[in-house]
Amino acid sequence: MKTQLRKSLLTTIATLAASLLTLHAAQAYEVVKPLVDTASLPASAKTWDEPNPLRSNKDAAVIGRSAFNQACAQCHGADANGSRSPAPDLRRMGLGCRRIQDEALRTRCMGDADAFFVKSVRYGKQKFGIVHMPPWEGVLTPEVVWSIRSFVETAPK
Fold first, then answer.
1. pTM of this structure
2. Distance CA 3, CA 90 (A)
3. Tens-digit pLDDT profile for residues 40-73
4. What ranges in 94-141 are assigned the alpha helix state H?
5. Tens-place pLDDT, residues 65-83
6. What is the pLDDT of residues 125-136, one digit of tens each?
7. Hey, how many other C-beta atoms are within 10 angstroms of the C-beta on 125?
8. How far apart are the C-alpha atoms of 96 and 105, rounded to whole Å?
9. Pairing between strand 130-133 and 125-127?
């Protein structure tokens, strides 16, 4: 009888703990629109077309850093240092593409990484009914997302 009571108590505690973690995770995301000035960016950045039209644009990377730290750092780490954050380290996205020697293939690979990045940001990430990343559609403009992508690509590893 005591063994069954212990098992029942442990099951109840585990269920309660899982529920609290799920509740905490659901409340942990705060969608914050970053306050950045994108007026200096080219008009080509105002669309979702990939590849990233702001790649190698130093102004975009500066804007992206500010936007990232305002909106993304709570999960992905300050200055994109995701090594100890709960969400993936975004600096690794597309890293393998940079090693490709063939320029056309490298560009295509980076375009695929850009498409994955944009889709993840716009529509968020949800698995088994648990929101791992909220959708940012309607909060972040294309030029802000591309700026963030440009910053993440240049952030120190």
1. 0.79
2. 47
3. 999 999 999 999 999 999 999 999 999 999 999 9
4. 103-123
5. 999 999 999 999 999 888 8
6. 988 988 889 999
7. 15
8. 12
9. antiparallel
How many CB atoms are located within 10 Å of the residue 114 CB?
Answer: 24
Spatial contact of 87 and 25, defined as CB atoms under 8 Å apart: no
Q: Is 125 helix (H, G, I), strand (E, B) or coil?
A: strand
Please state the φ and ψ torsions of residue 13, each to the nearest 5 degrees: -65, -45
d(CA 8, CA 85) in angstroms, rounded, equals 34
Q: For residues 123 and 11, what is the distance between their CA atoms, to the nearest angstrom?
A: 35
Quick one: tokens of 62? 């500066």
| Cβ proximity of 93 and 106 under 8 Å | no
Query: What distance in Å separates the CA atoms of residue 8 and residue 102, rounded to the nearest whole number?
Result: 61
CB-neighbour burial class of residue 39 (10 A; exposed 0-12, middle 13-18, buried 19+): exposed
- The two three-digit tokens of residue 60, written as one number: 């975009």
pLDDT (mean) for 142-157: 94
